[in-house]
Design a protein that fits this description.
255 residues, alpha+beta, ten-stranded antiparallel β-sheet, two-stranded antiparallel ribbon, 14 strands, 28% helix
Amino acid sequence: MLKKVSHSLSYIKCNTNQNLIRSFLLKKSNFNSTSIYTNDNNSQRKTNISTTDFDQNKHLFSFSDSCDPVIRENLVKNMTVLDNFILEEEEKAIIDEIEPYMKRLRYEFDHWDNAIHGFRETERLQWNEQNTIILRRIRDIAFPDSDQTLGHVHILDLSEKGHIKPHIDSVRFCGNTIAGLSLLSDSVMRLAHEKNKDVFADVLLKRRSMYIMKDSVRYDFTHEILPNSESKFKGETIHRLRRISLMCRNKPSPS
């Protein structure tokens, strides 16, 4: 009984946080209200959301001295991190579905564009019912225009010894927004201005968090997952274990 009560309270907290987060994102976009899917007694329902004035994002950023106030504001505006986006049970459900395939792949230490070291990856279109609902939550929040969302989800499995090098995703393959769900481990992502590497911010991506990278951060800043030799946040070492990320993207601009 206590386990069931604890689970229910965790789910209520998770959905309450998501409602507040959604309201915050809508305020950024100058919308007044919207609806998202929540889970109540294992069934879906839509909940209307009204905007709320709050910002719990900045504490997840550590800025270099070369970041002036305007750049800092721009980074926080266009790189949103949502802590505890999914529950432990939901993380397990995702891993249970993809692990049988992922474990058959070997970790690679080179990449076609030299962007990733110590990784294995795949794309997935079809998901079981439970995980389809989770992915719908990601898309509902990250992509207002659902018709422009790419159907395939990119799955990137990064080994403890691996890292993602600084890069900007090609405009040939995706549009102005990338949403990533971080599984199995905390990590530190560095965003560095393409034309001035002294201008950067380190972003703490906690396990089971989701980030939404868009617009100027997506196009003007490289992003990378730091190797363990450099993985620190505000002076604290963040030792990254194996990390799996699920990434959803929107379609490239037709121009």
